[in-house]
Amino acid sequence: MGNPQSKQDEKVVTQNADKQTIPEQIIQNQSISKQSVRKNKKHRDDKVLDTQNAHEQPIPKQIIQKQSIPMQSASKRTKHRNMQNSNSRRSCDEIEPQDRNVRDDEPITKHHTISSETSDQEDIEISLHFARNYLTPTDISQEWPCTVLLKAPETNETKRSGVDIICVIDVSGSMNGDKIELVQKTLEFMITQMASDDRVSIVSFNNFSEKLLPLTVMNDSGKIKAQEAIERLYTSGGTNIISGLDYGINIAVNRNIENNSTAIILLSDGCDRCRETALERTNACIENYNSSNVSYTIHSFGYGSDHDAKVLSAIAEAKNGGFYYVEKFESIASAFANCLGELLSTIASEIQINLQTLPAPIEYLLTKVYSSNGDIQFSMPNVMAGDSKEAVFILEFPPSQFDIGEGIDIIPIRATVKYTLIKTGLRKTENRELVIRLRPDFEEVKFDESVLNNFYRVKTAEILKEAGIIADKGKLDKARKLVLNQANELKNCICNSTELVKMLEKDLKKASKRFENYSEYERGGRADINSMAMNHRSKRGENNVIYQNCAQKKMQVKSKNFFSS
What SS3 state is found at 7? Predict the structure, then answer.
């Protein structure tokens, strides 16, 4: 009886030539990279606080009436103030003066009750898959990818549950003019798509942050309040991303009542005023709220080529959100619509997977799990209606002379999947097992195209991320060679004709051009690489139609119609 093992803390090595693998010799023998869990992290002294006005002007009664939102065109807006702020170089450690732990969210008028019937209708289909239809033990080592598949059914869009969306908007001086006007119109579009079960909050930040709109129910009067808040997005001063992030998270964790789906949308066009410590302070800010046990995602938008892609992508990755690189200002509408379509069609959230190795008659090893936040225990992005998400892991089978007779089944892996249904708030736990057929090699081997496609997807994402790290060290030629080698591997792989693999190959070639010179890499290349890596890992992106569900595609059309009207 062979005992399952897990290789730990080894360096990536080149595949030995005598190993039997997928025909194109693609899978590297890599070990699971253990990630330490930092516990009880001391709160940082440089945590920034709120500058929300203590007394806001009341909205006249005649305004708060049921009426349509008065949408203004960008050309008719009041000219934005571009004031020079003498405080733009304040210390990173300066504390904002006002307490922001205020629970001022409006009550939700409609609630969905937990129903077993509703739960069954929107349940997630879970299954485990092996890369081929059977395996034959041989005298050489073999490595093959496997997947944990989570698939959601299509749902009725008109019966979706409510969402809480907290928009955190950069209003520093560099956002003046067309930039802020496009953001304002994009927020106006978002408001038109909100239902009476939804709530929206708006926070602006420059040197400090300010709550322009508490979580407000999006009925007719609430939409008017939101419109007025959008009109108060004035530009001035510097950029304190951590202040805005902290305020947004604070609103999410300090609510009297929560919608089952919550997201923070953070948009910035620049770098934090204390760039050298921004990443460290960002991580500390997010960790500071982890003990709240409140579920939310963060989606970040890097506007233009001057934003800090490292910080914004790290923020999104930490909370299983998407990072959108908005290279051309006018494309903000498309990127935002894609994100909004995801938020309004999410079926399951808080997805946690635990892989357990089981005894088997032959030796095997769980050598790698493709995850950014764990090894055998990890989380996954939310699943949308009509969407699927796949976790990929690698099994290695060392040389074996085990007599399998005419064939036997083995069960090497059990996956425990926990998730929350958005519609009901019900937390579910399901177990699934991976069954692999062992048999003599006397019939045609058939490969599971979906497993191989997803293996190439996550491997490409990992290569892009690694190439970005190499490029940041100034080794552009090495980074370029790495992505071109991966593109060549995809070109010659067994599923090179599939739509997904063709898209991956195209993006790798695009990435190689970003590494041609340092000027190109600095002028948007870094952001593009970070965005591609995250989007392929989590199956997101407004430019990746293959990753979009019906709700996102419809939202894109609505956005185009809104902006062209």
Answer: coil
Q: Are strands 408-421 and 388-397 parallel, antiparallel or unpaired?
A: unpaired
Which range of residues forms the domain containing residue 466?
A: 447-565
Looking at residue 56, what is its pLDDT? 40
- Residue 189 corresponds to which tokens in the numbers above? 């579009």
Task: Please tell me the distance from the alpha carbon of residue 369 to that of residue 74, in angstroms, as a whole number.
Answer: 48
* Residue 549, both tokens: 């569900």
Tell me if 8 is assigned to some domain. Answer: no
**Encoded amino acid at 154, one letter:** E
Residue 318 and residue 240: Cα distance in Å, rounded? 19
Contacts of 530 (CB under 8 A, 6+ apart): 309, 310, 313, 323, 325, 465, 468
Q: Which has the higher per-residue pLDDT, 17 or 546?
A: 546
Radius of gyration of the chain (CA): 25
141 and 169: one domain? no
Q: What is the mean pLDDT of residues 259-273?
A: 92
In Å, how far are 71, 179, 302, 303, 563 from 332, measured between CA atoms? 18, 9, 10, 8, 11
Number of domains in the chain: 3
User: What is the distance in angstroms between the CA of the first residue and the CA of the last residue of the chain?
Assistant: 70
